[in-house]
Amino acid sequence: MITHEQAVGRLDDFAGGELSGRERREVHRHLESCAECSAEVAALRSLLDEARFLPREVAPERDLWAGIAPRLQPRAAEMPVIALHPRSAWQPRRWLLAAAATVAVAVGSSLATLALLRPPAEGPITLTTIDAAQAQPAATSAFAAFAPAEVEYRRAVDELATLLATRRDRLAPETVATLERSLGIIDIAIAEARTALEKDPNSRELAQMLSTVYDTKVRMLQQAVEL
Amino acid sequence: MKAKILIPAALAVLAAGSAPAQERIDARRSTGATGVVEIHNVAGTVRVLAWNRNEVHVTGTLGRGSDRLELVGEGDRVVVRVVLPRRGHDNRGSDIEVRVPGRKTVNVRTVSADINVAGVTGSVDVRAVSGDVGVSGRPRDVFAQSRSGDASFTGESGRVHAESVSGDVTVGGTVREQVEASAVSGDVSVTAASGEVRATSVSGQVEVTSMRGRAEVTTVSGDVRLAGRALHGSFQTVSGGIYVSGDLARDGTTSFNSHSGEIELRLSSGTSAAVDVSTFSGGILNDMAGARVTRSSRREQHFTVGRGDARVSIRTFSGGVKLTNR
To answer: Which site among A101, A133, B67, B125 is 20 to 30 Å from A168 CA-CA?
Structure first.
């Protein structure tokens, strides 16, 4: 009979069908008496099933990170981040993050998304508000200056939303409802700010407001993906 | 047809009847003063108390349907586990109390069992699915997580991370370095004096008081409520309101952003700040005594109070802005 810790260390391979006969039987016996490990295996298999239906590989259109990094500053540049007890420290969840990252890459991810998916041990990456007006020459309208950032915000949002969709069935229905309601609130705010900026394209303040709401959306999706 | 219904029912009765009854637990194991104690219990309660003996002592009640209590160890690592039978669904919760050497690192994992850890000075890491998790005392650092239960800390620590999805999160006492507190639909309350606070909730309210360091707060629809003597940081919501009462940190930089919620600042009469207010369609009401307005229009206002030490930015799209003295 293997210990719980030994079983935890083999769950990845068990779910992936990579254990030898004896090892597989040992883990199987453990699962019969351990609800925690059974749940982990069920979650892993579900994620692997979803990944199976995705394209094997879709290359990113381009390396977004070089363009996005200067504007989407990691928190580390702003203030020290202290990662407390990464999930993997005691109950390994690397498989989940790795599988999630695989899913993201398969649907056309960018390095930006991979950075967003970085596990807590490596420091949570969050996006600071883009100062659109500072990012472009003064001669450019604030609306035009914000456009490239908006493309990247949308791409990050799409990728996180896709990733979240793969994990949706792991969330409680009421949590999904809260997230959807909140995304609706954010989308209304984005639409309002964007319409106002279109009408007043030189307004740095409106560009800043729009950026702030996008920022909130990315943060919220990032938080949801990590649930 | 009736037989098909009755047979499973009869088996269920037999299974319930054969499940082991409740059983008192009293188990001990010698260990070192430091190292790790890991505790697993699916349902019931887990209470961890520190004591000054180099021994782990487990007492309580093993729930009906549980197989046994496992208390094993190697070196300074001790594992306490309520073992469930390989098959059997009539598992009642086990209530266990575990006394541990105070300097141990304590890790507890449960599903629905509530967790309470008190008095430990080592690191504490407690995680439940639906149970409440609570830590008190003077742990070196704390990680407290529940998905649908509440997560709380009160006491003195270096760093605290507390999170829940639908439960409430509260952090009180003193946290020297950093508090991270987050929820999705639950409320977050950080009353701890802390070097730095990062607090988020999607739809719940976030309250941060006793601020003495920088704070960063984000919500979507929940209100943000702040109080303290040295307020500074970044406070952001989409449709929630931001309500501030206190003093701004001198030389600090602070931003308040709400898309459609109102922002209300009630600052002390001794405030020294340069304030930029901007709104697209919300109103601006400035009743601050001694405010020297340098620029004002329907959409923006720039003013200084005192010597203008703190830098404050207030932005809304459609929410109103109100500034008054306390």
So the answer is: B125
State how far the Cα of B197 lies from the Cα of B10, in Å rounded to an integer. Answer: 57
- Closest Cα of chain A to B87: distance in Å? 7
State the Cα–Cα distance between residues A220 and B201, nearest whole angstrom. 9
**Confidence class for position B292, pLDDT limits 50, 70, 90:** very high
Which residue's structure tokens are 């600042």? B265
More confident residue, A59 or B287: B287
| Alpha carbon distances (Å) from B219 to A183, B95, B228 | 12, 37, 19
DSSP class per residue in A55-74 = -S----SS--HHHHTTTS--
Closest residue in A to B159 (Cα) is: A84
The C-alpha atoms of residue A188 and residue A149 are separated, in whole angstroms, by: 19
pLDDT in tens, B210-266: 777 889 999 999 999 999 888 899 999 999 999 999 999 888 999 999 999 999 999
CA distance B122 to B138: 8
Determine the Cα–Cα distance for residues B61 and B72; give it in Å rounded to an integer: 18
Cβ of A220 within 8 Å of Cβ of B202? The answer is yes
Closest Cα of chain A to B8: distance in Å? 21
Nearest residue to A35 (alpha-carbon basis) of B79, B117, B165, B129: B129
A:B CB pairs within 8 Å: 122
Predicted local distance difference test score (pLDDT) of residue A46: 59
What is the reported pTM? 0.72
Rounded Cα gap, residues B179 and B183, in angstroms: 13
- Contact B49/B100 with Cβ under 8 angstroms? yes
Handedness of CA B166, B167, B168, B172 (dihedral sign): negative
Distance CA B65, CA B113 (A): 15
d(CA B224, CA B206): 5
Strands (E), B32-138: 36-41, 44-51, 55-62, 68-74, 77-83, 94-101, 105-110, 114-118, 124-128, 133-137
